[in-house]
Amino acid sequence: MSPDLWAATGIGFGFLAILVLAEVSRKSWHLSTESSRKIVHVGGGLLTLPLPWLVTSPHVVLGLAVASSILLFAGRKLKTLKSVHAVHRRTGGSEYFPLAVALLFVLSLDREWLYLASMLVLAVADAGAALIGSRHGRLRYWVEQEDKSVEGSLVFLLLAWPVIFLPSFLLTELPLSILLPGTLIVALLVTGFEAISTGGTDNLFVPIGVCVILPKITAQPAEEIHSQLLGLLAMFPLGGWLAWRTRTFHAGGAIAILMFCYGAWTLASERWAVAPLAGFVTYALGRRILPARPEREAPVRVVIVFRTVVTALLLLVIANLHHLHEPLGEAYAMAVAAGIVHSLWNHWQIRNEGKRGREILYCALTICSLWISLAVLDAAKPLAFLLLLLLPAANTLCQKITHRPPQPWGAFQLSLTLIATITTAINS
Length: 428
What we know:
Elements: H1 3-28, H2 33-47, H3 51-54, H4 58-77, H5 82-85, H6 93-107, H7 112-136, E1 140-143, E2 146-149, H8 150-171, H9 176-196, H10 202-218, H11 222-246, H12 251-267, H13 270-289, H14 302-322, H15 325-349, H16 356-375, H17 382-402, H18 411-427
Antiparallel strand pairs: 1-2
Helix pairs in contact: 1-2, 1-4, 2-7, 4-6, 6-7, 6-10, 7-8, 7-10, 8-9, 9-10, 9-11, 9-12, 11-12, 12-13, 12-14, 13-15, 13-16, 14-15, 15-16, 15-17, 15-18, 17-18
């Protein structure tokens, strides 16, 4: 048997031993399921740390991950492995964990420092945040149907920064002027990923986020990293305060839109971030100016934010991967502006009847926001405004035909956004 298979077999038996330890601990010492889950979480993470030095074949690691996922999935279906699965919340985190290990092994190939930093965040920071948050969390916030704690998120950040920094410092020759602010940026961003992830998906998004973002951040000049850190530290408190004051967004929704704005800045430029930020501010202020019926409009959740920005997000990723920022700038601006139009139109339909002055102010704010979103990327052209005028007309027609109240975001709005975006791209 090859050395790779011997190493994978040893790690596999080690993982089985951790599962047995968690089961025995839960039954003999009456540990809570959250505590026994973290034994598996931390133990499995630490066990796989030397993987890049022990195994060279991605296929062997993939096979190990698939076998582990099948074992955990079977334990869920057969209602065994209660040390992992006997929790009241719905979560697939245990099955995502082995998949994350395999993906990290491939993404960080020949860059052991990336693998270590990513796995340590998954094993240490995530586990510590869950334990502290579940036991001592008092300041709660909602993300979709799950409630999380500010204390848990702070613990995650305080643990994530050093475990990202240490492998980067010990295994690379990057200077401290880059490592200290750069690793803090990554820690802040993956804290946001952890905050808005539900159903155990943080076991996948958090380590992959570290592995992808860390080399990009640390490859930039120190001055750019410092300015990005200052912008990030200013953006999140201000955005959180605005969301809290206007009661427009759930905490998860506010974090999601701010992370999108920051991602637009880092992957493209400040101009690409100004466009969605203008929409975020306009929508929050618009709901404040014209309050809606409370029973008709709830705070915006993560899934609604994702639907709103998904077209712009795809353009952002394509532009970054293929260096097409200039050709796709106008289409990106249209995608953002279309999201603003749909969101503000929906709110207009379910608002309380306001004073005429407030309605005029609402319309003026909308026009100003659309102009900013288009103008910063040189897309403020007659065709763009014509397309944007057609969006609420199409929404109104659809509402009259279906005789249903407007939905916050759905397939129809997404289709209209795609049509407007593609039309803009063709004519730009």
